[in-house]
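step 4 of 6: structure.
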Amino acid sequence: MFRIALKIESGLRYVGWLVLLICFAFFNSPVRAAATDVFAGQVGSLRISGGTAHIPVMKEVAKLIMEAHPDIRISVAGGGSGLGIKQVGEGLVDIGNSGRKPTDNEMQKYGLVLHRWALDGVAVIVHRDNRVQVLTRSRLQDIYSGRLRNWRDLGGVDKEITVFTRDQGSGTRKVFWKKALRKEVTTNKALVVASNGAMKSGVAHNPYAIGYVSIGFLDKSLAAVALDGVMPSLETVQNGEYPVVRGLYSNTKGEVQGLTKSFIDFLFSPSGRKIISDKGLIPAAR
Amino acid sequence: MKRSVRVGRPLVLAATAVGSLLTLAIFAFMMMLGRPLFSDHSLNLLLTQAWAPDRGLYGIFPFICGTLSLVGLSLLIAFPLSLGNAILIHLLAPRRLARFLHQTIKLMTGVPTVVYGFVGIFFLVPLIREWFFRGSGMCILSASLLLAMLISPTMILVFLESFAAIPTAHIRALEALGGTRRQKLVHVILPGAKTGIITGLLLALGRALGDTMIALMVAGNATAAPESVLDSVRTLTAHIALVMAADFDSMEFKTIFACGIILYLWTALLTLSLRYIHYNSTKLSHDQTF
């Protein structure tokens, strides 16, 4: 009796291990592979460039696909929205990212197709030691126009404000200028950087700086500024409370096909959407 | 004629022809694409106006000022340093130290400028910001200090070469007359190496004019014309890098061809003056020998 019980128990344990193994097999690799399954059997390379707010998501997706399918090469470069649109239009890359809608002129000239896969907010940022972490939009206009030059006037330290802005081709700049500055002209004393990453490190290393980045770039190295009383975050962007919001686009020349299509489709798949929200952005429906 | 010469000469000629044609083609290309600037906007306005696209002003005057002040200050810093360094290595330092310095400087010529830019952002910019109590630290001063570091090795090596080319007979003669080291430097080495010193200076100037990364990363790229060394500036090269992403048909984009043409002409002028100096000096030495 006892021996039989023991046998059953060891048998059960056996079954238990088996179940566990099967679970592992199901929940680990096949599920992950299932997400990138559409890439099975595809070979070739995919070139992506443009908007710098897109880069964290693009890199993660590219890594996932290339790990599962070593025959696929995906290169991700920056350069800014303007460059992305230009390069995809000229056929230099397969996907050109932009943080703004291409202009009518650009769309017509190149025959672009837009894929808006995420919603993004543009957050005003200051150094994390800065006491001034709340601003109204009209105050922000004063700072960016150069009318207000010292942090003292805002309740901060007695230091000149270092204003950071972005280059001509930046989609982030365009949205910020339109929705946060309400088309106020930026002072020509403002420092100009060429990417979201450069903006982040520029402001994080200067205690008297103010700048703006995609909310995907916010972290503990910076302080985000509440604009008109609203803190920029996933929730406030999603529910429409935060005013400075834009779509993130991946543009292709003509209708997508092949590897490019699979890549774009992946951004709208459940795993793609998860990566997008992991990177601090809001996945958008097709 | 030897076979290698028979085959080699046309090959070398072809390579030279392609090389020089390409250079000319680049110039023609820039002139062509920049043409609207010369017709719609008078060139004069372009060269003297401020940069304010919102008011319809597309002048690159501030960037010309920016480039010249940055390059000027960096030469001002780098020239005495380099001359002193070359003299130290050639004349004053013990042989071991001299060799060590010489090797280090050779190594420095290979450092990519983006590395200087990177070090500048994290190390120099905060220092300058705290020391001078105003500005952001991303300014002419920071960028010129880094640029001086970039161009010094070129200058030092050219200076050293010209020091070494001074005829030993002249030095022996001075030593035989009982001349001191100071006299050797002031009366033989420096006058003898005059051409080399000017050549080194011009080469360094060319390198400083053409550098993009240091200015782009450290000088701040503000579009205002600078008023002090603590102001941020944009150089012509940085302007090209920053505006490249703008819409092809926009005026902003077209200005980069004006920047390109100016840089091209400056470099051409430098090369021509180097040639002229070289030509004169070889003529001179021929006259002396014969």
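step 5 of 6: annotate
 - Chain A has two domains: 30-119+250-283, 121-245.
 - The CA atoms of residues 227 and 257 of chain A lie 42 Å apart.
step 6 of 6: archive
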